[in-house]
Amino acid sequence: MRRVILTIIGTIAGLAALLSFKSHEPSAVTSAGGATEPGATQAAGTPKPLATGEHAIDGNVADTIYGPVQIQVVVKNARIVGVNVLEQPSGTSQDLQIGQFAFPQLISETISAQSANVDAVSGASYTSAGYIKSLQSALDNGA
What we know:
Layout: H1 2-20, E1 54-58, E2 62-64, E3 67-76, E4 79-87, H2 93-113, H3 125-140
């Protein structure tokens, strides 16, 4: 009899935990600033103004299951000198944490590789895929 009561209480507790779980749904996106020089990051908002001789090329918006990603490539003398993150998933605080972790690594690799041939960041697979897709479209559009 005691086992039956414990089993019922455990089942009710598990069911309550399951029903209180909130799924991860994409929502409205806010802009986040990126880097315009290797190793530099910028607070959320407008990308850093361009220096003389630089031009910016916006990539297409890449939709991921967590939200859209859009990248802007900053080019000077046919070289990638910076990357700005125009849109990133921001539906939850975890989305923002992943972006703060992944984007600086992706930007650094992009500037080093001078192409969209960069590795995805572990733990940020979907965000990395969106970044690479948007980056490639920017490069195809005129970098």
